[in-house]
Design a protein that fits this description.
396 residues; alpha/beta; Arc Repressor Mutant, subunit A; 3 domains; five-stranded parallel beta sheet; two-stranded antiparallel ribbon; 7 strands; globular; binds adenosine-5'-diphosphate; binds magnesium ion
Length: 396
């Protein structure tokens, strides 16, 4: 048998080739200098030009599945057009994953310390806001936007005159970004008046085609990899793999490319075989899944965990009402969590399906419109995430 030889770090670095010229560009939150011009980008440019041209409030709702380029296109547009510097419009960006309550968002917007009453913080915001401003709330579907406890965020931005005593002459435009395509429908069902008074322009980023994914991969490879360590066949094979799984998620594609190249470096190879790429692809799915699961709050994660438990039984519990009654409610009771209503449960199922963690389908013959649920993620990964999340919640 061949003897195992372990090299030290120095030797490993010296012996392995360097194929990456810009490794940071493989991070999901990296904004590249050059992007693939998807057609909806022009809609976004038109909408932003409109609010700059007329100096008026214009609200935009950007919807699309994960990895359709919403964050990247918007950030690129702002950076590339120097909107702040050139037009004197302040941009405030908040990701609602880390700020998932209305209260936290207004604290972040103003720099106010926690503890101050929310109406005072809103007042502070309008008092200090001396310029026109675009507020971007990314991953808005994670925010308790209509919470009455800390004040309704949309309400305040739609009626500055009622919130503050200061005369407020500037324009505030909101850009809300959601991975959940049904997000505004959910909001409308809860509070129609506030939402419609803001008159959002909806822009939908559809899924990329295989060819689009190929072009995005090519841009990434050209800007961040050494020539010769990849070829177009590899890129189109990756694009085909992510198309075959029905999601066309660019995050999986880009992660597959990164892991493939890393494998080549580690094994001092020059060309990837399809087998190497395929293994990298399987690993990339797990990485992206972990990232998506990590973003779920405990309420949604509990529902996903209930779906996972339901699909585990010998007799499958896979309709939404059965999962709700037989798995979800007992699970909440067991872990001392307050359950959401059946309606809320359905809204969260819509969200989970929009981020591809589950698939739901309706049995039209069945008049109750009960939804069938199937899981797209490994039960193990969900369980680990749930346990971790519930533990950190208990420690808080
Ligand atoms: N049009 C594009 N041009 C270049 N890269 C893109 C484009 N769309 C998406 N990407 C890449 O795909 C990944 C996911 O895009 P992202 O903007 O985070 O999607 P979303 O915000 O819709 O979930 C990012 O790493 C990004 O660099
Ligand atoms: Mg995003």
């Amino acid at each position: 048998m061949k003897e195992l030889i372990i090299k030290n770090i120095d030797e490993t670095i010296q012996n392995s080739p360097c194929f990456f010229t810009n490794i940071k560009s493989f991070n999901f939150d990296y904004t590249p200098d050059e992007i693939f011009p998807r057609k909806e980008l022009q809609d976004l440019i038109n909408a932003i030009s409109f609010l700059i041209k007329y100096r008026s409030s214009h609200h935009i709702l950007l919807l699309g599945g994960p990895g359709t380029g919403k964050t990247t296109c918007l950030n690129w547009l702002i950076k590339n057009n120097q909107i702040e510097k050139k037009y004197g419009i302040e941009i405030k960006y908040i990701n609602c994953i880390s700020s998932d309550t209305t209260y936290q968002v207004i604290c972040d917007l103003t720099g106010a310390k926690r503890g101050m009453p929310s109406n005072q913080i809103f007042d502070l915001f309008f008092k200090n806001q001396k310029k026109d401003c675009i507020i971007i709330l990314d991953e808005i579907n994670r925010l308790d936007i209509l919470s009455q406890k800390s004040g309704n965020l949309l309400y305040f931005f739609s009626r500055p005159g009622e919130v503050t005593n200061h005369t407020f002459k500037n324009n505030i435009s909101l850009i809300l970004i959601s991975n959940n395509l049904f997000w505004d429908r959910d909001i409308l069902s809860k509070d129609n008046s506030v939402y419609s008074s803001l008159q959002f322009q909806r822009i939908i980023f559809s899924q990329y085609s295989t060819d689009d994914v190929f072009k995005i991969l090519k841009l990434k490879a050209q800007s961040s990899l050494k020539m010769g360590c990849y070829d177009e066949d590899t890129l189109s094979y990756i694009a085909k793999l992510v198309n075959d799984d029905g999601r066309n998620d660019t995050r999986v594609a880009i992660m597959t490319l990164k892991l493939t190249i890393q494998y080549l470096e580690n094994n001092q190879l020059n060309n990837p075989t399809n087998k190497i790429v395929y293994q990298a692809y399987i690993q990339a799915i797990l990485e992206v899944e972990k990232e998506t699961l990590g973003k779920l709050n405990l309420t949604v994660l509990t529902i996903l965990y209930a779906c996972a438990l339901g699909s585990e039984e010998k007799i499958k519990i896979d309709t939404s009402s059965a999962v709700f009654n037989q798995v979800y409610l007992p699970l909440c009771k067991r872990d001392g969590r307050r359950p959401v209503s059946f309606m809320g449960f359905h809204n969260h199922l819509n969200y989970l399906s929009s981020v591809n963690l589950i698939t739901t389908y309706v049995d039209w013959k069945n008049k109750t419109k009960n939804k069938y649920i199937s899981l797209n993620t490994s039960k193990k990964a969900i369980e680990v995430s749930y346990q971790k999340n519930i533990l950190s919640n208990q420690n808080d």
